[in-house]
Sequence to fold (97 residues):
Amino acid sequence: MSIHVTESAANWYKKELGVKDGEAIRFYARYSSGGGLHPGFSLGISVEQPEYPVESTEVSGVLFFMEEHDHWYLKGHRLDVGYIEAEDDIIYRYETE
Fold:
């Protein structure tokens, strides 16, 4: 599994984005001046249902997924999504698989 979301991170998304049980959050590669895992790109999110998910996990009633055409962004890596309570924010970590 290349996507791991902690329960506290899932609850943060529910609170911040108004996501309800049964809804889904898509992770995707987007152009960015900053650097994420790949220079010139960062991880984007949107609330939408999957069409061709290649990676997914369900946490706290929410499906987190990445579509097939964006999978190149994570290839060879695991995405860990955590929650930082002191900052009331999430953090993305990439681990080599």
Summary: The first strand starts at residue 3 and ends at 5. The first helix runs from residue 7 to 17. The CA atoms of residues 12 and 78 lie 20 Å apart. The chain is about 10% helix and 55% strand.
